[in-house]
Amino acid sequence: MGARRMRRLDSFRCSSSLAYGLVAFALGCGGGGSTPDAGLSDAAGGEEAGVAPPYCTSQSGVASVTDLSGIWVARMVGAEIVNSPIGAIHTENVFFVLLNISQSGTELQLDGRYCDRTEINPQNALVPVIVPAAWAHTEKMVHRKGTFTAGTDGVSTLAMSEYVELAGALPGPATDPLPKNASELSALQVIDEDGDGNPGITVVLNGQSISGSIYTVQEQITSVIAIPVAPNRVEGALSFTSFQKILASNPTNIASLYALSTTSSDPVVCDSTFAMVKIADAPAIDGGTMDVGELDGGVAGDGAALDGGVVGCEWVRAKEAVLFP
């Protein structure tokens, strides 16, 4: 997928974007307010050779794959742009999710957990973002639905409908509508979701001019469209919408500096992507760990059983570069 990854749709995770917005402050620049953009981008052009929407993969689809049942590791890569007086800064956020997929006809049920969250900082970043291990490794549960339907060319398409997630807060009663903007997040019950003793979730800024921590509540909405490109691999496009409410910061002045730049969707088609690698046919057991023997399809060079035959998030974190080279 390369250093800049295959390109697709939207912005991803505003919790990290605020740190890049502070780059403008670090250089003595100022700007307007800041909120992440939402929704699919219709921008055209700029995609890598051989990489085109709607699936954003250079690989051909495999028609023989008709069932996605099994244990998979998914990687979601999201791109966004922070605009400041010094220019536009591109950043990528990466999420790894361990999934147990069951299929009935064309209907999918996907259950699992987040295993890792990381940030790819630009080489010129004056205020690099670090996702602390407390939040990066918080194994937040995932329960979502999708479909796997044959197309006119015989290649089946994976479609995951919109999935809404809160981070750092509890949802209100089921009858209450979900927040529609950052200010509405203030009405939610804040929790210390990463267990670090601070409200919400914590993101660390690690620049020479600006360093400290931001505590925030977020809402994000994702959807996926993808195709199988091998018996054990699916690739496609990710759509991401996100907004957040800053609760506090340490030092306290960092929160107020958030308003010095603007964050928006990366308009380049296929800048945000989805990929998924199958690691076993067996169902999930034991509270979300995965029983496996060998990794099929040459996913791992050693092909050996791992962690005594049980794969969980610790194994996923250790094998991220092998699963997604």
Describe this protein with a few key phrases.
disordered N terminus, 42% strand, 16 strands, 5 helices, mainly beta, eight-stranded antiparallel beta barrel, 325 residues, three-stranded antiparallel beta sheet
List the quaternary state of the chains.
single chain
Range of strand content: 35-45%
Write the H/E string, N to C: HEEEEHEEEEEEEHEEEEEHH
The low-confidence runs, each spanning 5 or more residues with pLDDT under 50, are 1-50, 284-309
Terminal CA distance reads 8 Å
Give the beta-strand count: 16
Question: Structural class, please?
Answer: mainly beta
Supply Rg: 20 Å
Q: Average pLDDT across residues? A: 75
- Order of strands, main sheet, comes to 1-2-3-5-6-10-11-13
- Tell me the helix content: under 10%
Would you give an account of this structure?
With 325 residues, the chain is mostly beta strands. The chain has one domain. It has five helices and 16 strands. The strands form three sheets. Strands 1-2-3-5-6-10-11-13 form an eight-stranded antiparallel β-barrel. A hairpin with a 2-residue loop joins strand 1 (70-84) and strand 2 (87-104). The longest helix is centred in the first third of the chain and has 13 residues, at 14-26. Residues 1-50 and 284-309 have low confidence and may be disordered.
Provide a short characterization of the protein structure:
With 325 residues, the chain is mainly beta. It has helices spanning 14-26, 133-136, 253-257, 313-318, 320-323; strands spanning 70-84, 87-104, 107-120, 129-130, 141-150, 156-167, 169-170, 189-190, 201-206, 211-230, 233-250, 262-265, 273-280, 284-285, 289-291, 310-311.
